[in-house]
Each structure stands twice: as C-alpha cells, then as structure tokens.
Task: structure prediction
Amino acid sequence: MPEQPFEPDRAIAGTGAGGAMDLATSEAQTLETTPGGPLGTGPAAKPRSLWSDAWRDLRRNPVFLVSALVILFLVVISLWPSLIASGSPLKCDLAKAQEGSQPGAPFGYDGQGCNVYTRTVYGARTSVTVGVCATLGVALLGSVLGGLAGFFGGFWDSVLSRITDVFFAIPVVLGGLVLLSVVTSNTVWPVIGFMVLLGWPQISRIARGSVITAKQNDYVQAARALGASNSRILLRHIAPNAVAPVIVVATIALGTYIALEATLSYLGVGLKPPSVSWGIDISAASPYIRNAPHALLWPSGALALTVLAFIMLGDAVRDALDPKLR
Result:
C-alpha cells in the first residue's frame, strides 16, 4: 500500500478536542516551571509598596544623591567640626583683622580678626540643629493636630481651622522681631520654639487634608465595619497612607527654617554673640564688604548651599512619593 503524504493541516485538525487540551496543559506546565513565571512576573514576585518604589526612584535620582551627600557632609561636620577645623571659633586676633587667605586660615579673617574658615565650619552646627529640631517639632505638632481634626471633623475641625487662619495672618519676620526681642536667652531653643509656634499651621492643614482623603477609602470603611477602634483605624490604616505629603513639605521647609534662623540672627533678634551662626557672621561682615568681601562671601555661600541642598532633597522626595509625577 503506497505511503500517504504528510499534510500539516490535517494532522492539526486530527488532534481533536483532547489533543488541544493536552497542548494547552503542556504549555501551562512549561510556564509554571519557568523561573519567575511568565514574563518574569511569577508567583515569587512580591508587590512593591509606595515606600519601596520611592526608595528605588530616589536611588536613581542624581539630584537626590548630590543633595544627600551634601547634607551628610553637613551633619558630620556639625557633630564633629574638629575633623576639618582646628582651633576655637571664638579665638580672634585684631592684628589680623580683614586679612586675606593664608596658611591656617584659607578663608581669611573677618573684621574682628576671627578665622572665617573655623567660624564657617562651626556655624553649620547651629544651622543644622535649628533646622532639624524645628522641622521635627513642626511636623509632630502639626500632624497630630491636623490629623485629629481631619479624622473627627465637626466642632474641633472648625475651631482648628480658625486658629490656623489666625497664625497664617502673622508675618513670620515681624513676629520674630516682636517675640524674640524680649527673650534674654542666648541659646537656640527660643528660636526653635518660635519656628514651631508659627510653622505648625502649614503642616496641620496638609495633614488634615491627607487624613480626610485617606479616611474615605474602602479599606478604612471595611476596618470600621469589622469593629476596629478609632485609634487603630487612625494609626494603622490612615496615618501610613497620609504621611507622605507631610514628609515632603517638612523636608522642603527644613531649608526654609535654616534661612529664617540666619535672617533673625542677622537682624539681631535670633542668636547673639558669642554664639557662632552664619547669620551673625554675615551681619558682622556687612560693614566691611568693600575691604574684606571674603568675610561675607564664605558664610553666605555656606548658607545658600545648605538651603539649596535641603530644597533639592525635598523636591526629589516629592517626585518619588507623588504618583502623579511618575
């Protein structure tokens, strides 16, 4: 009997329903045994959270890396200024007043004969301390008050809204001139307290809006239907999902608080001598700007670089945490 030629179409058609099922089963088994699953998204892959996605984006952002390195350097010299600067920032020699750069004083001397380099390095401690402490105080107080007002609403929400309107109407610099002019303490704490007093309404309003948005989500309603207490709902379900905008605003505001401290010290109502501050040095060097511009240039440059680094860090954090910017 002659051999029949092979016809592909007839062979596929002859597989029937059973053959098609066997083929599908074989393909499914192949996909299941493939490492990582189909397209590399197998069951071993874990869903990433907002924070893991944000950290991944931040590590790839050159703006974040540069600003983080600058801030890390500032923190290190704030804690251990003697690593890069020898001598005391309060040691001055009038015989060297307004002299330029020389060995041991690469930034020269100011009008009182103080080493500008040493004072610039030690001035970072004051600025970083004021900025970090003021930001933590503002973020904590504003988040608590705003979160509670947004969660419970009603009478307390209305009262807090009116109080924040009153604080928003107070000019910051004018308020500092009035309040700090009667303070006799020569430490950073009155300045920090003033910043917290006038800074919490902004964070409070942002936290209130975030909590109001988060409490309308389905998972919050489900937790409430299951009998979860208000404290558990607020701390476990709402706060983790409402804290991102607060972090962004607080990070950007940190640089603003550093600039505000320098402004108040420049006006003579913030820190006062013998404290070491960039604002004090800028104020003291202003009359000698023609004869000794270096005494004004270096602390001003350090202040501008620090504020810029924190603002850049805040912008990078905002881009990483805001889903609309992805």
